[in-house]
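#lab-general

N.A. 3:47 PM
ok so I finally got the sequence cleaned up, no stray characters, all 218 residues accounted for. can someone with queue access submit it? mine expired

B.Y. 3:52 PM
send it over

N.A. 3:53 PM
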Amino acid sequence: MSDLTLVGGADWGYSPRPFVLILGALQKVPWVGSYFNRLWIYDEIRYTKKTPQELSKIIKEREPNIDKFAMLKLDPSASTKAKDGSLSIQDQFTQEGIMFTPANNDRPNGWMAVRKWLSIAPDGMPYMLITERCNFLIKNFPMVVYDDIKKDDLDTNGLDDELDALRYLCVHLKWIDANVQEAKRGHETGIQLLHNQLLADKEAFEDDREEDNYKEVV
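B.Y. 4:20 PM
back already:
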């Protein structure tokens, strides 16, 4: 579909934690004279013990349009160069034509962004929809728990790799609260109707006054 903007988020891992790339598409959905954004999470790429070179080849095979993605966010730790000055993980992906940029790693705000995308849009469906191709994301989503100490963060000892990749993506996307927009438009419409009614009443009053004055003169 031509109205979809392709986006992705990735969590870096080699072993035992995996590399996870979440692939999504942002859709502008018309709604009551305006619009809201819907995020379709349509695929995941998940591997262990793969180098950036091997992963780049896999990514290009799985998603031939990867060069057309408007945004690809990567675990910011992958942008750190090694102590010997060798290329970072992100730089190695760049050499292979996979153009990642570092994601915002503000975890509390990232989880807040995920929660917003999981909320219900005015059409009755969540702002974010996940397809059945995302097996590990769907499987591990209900397995994560909050951290006992950091109440606004998830326990990093859990299976949070897919969730981290999703967080890196969601925190950079524009979420629009269509319900607030709709209420605002309703409020503005109500004010306009009241204004129109007041003008009509004023004109009717002035017409009555003119008619009374005419009668007095006659």
